[in-house]
Amino acid sequence: MSVALVRGWNETLRDQLDFHFRHHLRPRLEGLTDDEYFWEPVPGSWSVRPREQATSSHAAGGGDLVVDYAWPEPDPAPPTTIAWRLGHVIAGCFAMRTAIHFGGSPRDYTSWTYAATADEALAQLDATYDAWSAGVESLGEEGLARPVGPAEGHFAEAPYAELVLHINRELIHHAAEICLLRDLYLRREELS
Asked: Is 86 within a domain?
């Protein structure tokens, strides 16, 4: 007689993100150079850059570097660099949401110290990913049904499961764009 293994939703949601992170994204980021990290695929791309070189109206950051941003966002939005995409995932998806929902120092786009190198960004990515994953695990099954609360604005009554799915989508789509930027960087001479 075989016994069916029953997994809960918490484990299933974490596994979805973890599989993508560990088997798709992180292997593709091995060997990321600073040149790739800051490479602008076209002039006017949003990036992470020294504060005095910011190119957008709402550039933000807590250190010497800021991430380009504008509100309302231009239509169409400018293309972005790997540095910008990683900064968004690290600060806006993982660090900020972990601090809000699972404790720790307040974090947001304006207070985050953006990475000045690819290696520093990857270390931030790993640390914030691990903290977010531990926070989601701490919710257990019952916690996934609890409302996220006022920190999520007009989504305050949404269950944590929806926030977890949102962060999963954010990482998966930004990771795909980061991988595409790496592919384009390798072929940048052919693009000219």
From this structure: yes
Asked whether the beta carbons of 129 and 21 are under 8 A apart, the reply is: yes
35 belongs to a structural domain: yes
Length of the chain counted residue by residue: 192
- Helix, strand, coil percentages in the chain from 3-state DSSP, rounded to 5: 60, 5, 35
Q: Where in the sequence is the domain holding 144, given as residue range(s)?
A: 10-191
Tell me which residue has tokens 């660090």.
95
Count of domains in the chain?
1
Each as own residue / partner, the long-range contacts of residues 123-129 (CB below 8 Å, 24 or more positions apart, any chain) are 124/86, 124/90, 124/95, 125/29, 125/86, 125/89, 125/90, 125/94, 126/26, 128/90, 128/91, 128/94, 128/95, 128/98, 129/21, 129/94
CATH number at residue 69: 1.20.120
CB 29 within 8 A of CB 122: yes
Exposed/middle/buried for residue 20 (C-beta within 10 Å: 0-12, 13-18, 19+) = middle
Tell me, what amino acid is at 35?
D
**What pLDDT, on a 0 to 100 scale, did the predictor assign at position 108?**
86
3-state secondary structure (DSSP) of residue 75: coil
> What would the pLDDT profile of 85-141 be if each residue is shown by its tens digit?
999 999 999 999 999 999 978 888 899 999 999 999 999 999 999 999 999 999 999
In a domain, 2, yes or no: no
What is the spatial distance between Cα 107 and Cα 155, in angstroms, rounded to a whole number?
19
